[in-house]
Specification:
single chain, 163 residues, alpha+beta, Mannose-Binding Protein A, Chain A, eight-stranded mixed sheet
């Protein structure tokens, strides 16, 4: 009897920890992530602020790709879940932005301008402009994605939330 109760408790705990993410979110490296593609009519393409509002409506915020390994895991998830045109061509708003003269994730973590997460020769140096981060495909033959920059009027067809 004791062993049966112990096994039941272990099963419940493992199920609870496996499904700790809100509905619609997937656990990736222990973070709850949701990829949103053209969420509703009239929302495609969208600006960074609209994407951020969409995440807040879903109970989260734009994803902070910290630790850096999260970018690779999210890229694999996109490739597996949205093969073809979306995986190969779409850009995704994520939660990096300029703060003063530096870059920061929405969760407060610093985003290094020297990181290999960036498209080569980005982000812009010594810019006082407002910039936001986009996750962009490297090329159709490489599952890798990089960070690119977009301004306040830039648009993207998709975004990634984190709860």
């Amino acid at each position: 009897m004791y062993l049966g109760v112990l096994l039941t408790v272990a099963l419940v705990l493992s199920t609870a920890s496996a499904s700790h993410c809100p509905t619609g979110y997937q656990s990736i490296l222990g973070k709850c992530i949701q990829v949103v593609i053209a969420a509703s009519f009239g929302e495609f393409p969208i600006r960074w602020e609209v994407a951020r509002s969409g995440c807040k409506e879903r109970g989260g915020d734009l994803v902070s790709l910290s630790p850096p390994e999260l970018l690779e895991h999210v890229s694999r998830y996109i490739d597996a879940t949205y093969p073809g045109h979306i995986a190969n061509d779409y850009t995704f708003w994520v939660g990096g932005q300029t703060v003063g003269s530096g870059w920061q994730w929405l969760n407060g973590d610093k985003l290094s301008v020297k990181s290999n997460l960036w498209v080569p020769n980005l982000p812009p140096k010594n810019s006082d402009a407002t910039w936001y981060t986009l996750l962009v495909p490297a090329d159709p033959t490489t599952p890798r994605r990089y960070l690119n920059v977009g301004g306040p009027s830039s648009q993207s067809p998709a975004y990634i939330c984190q709860a």
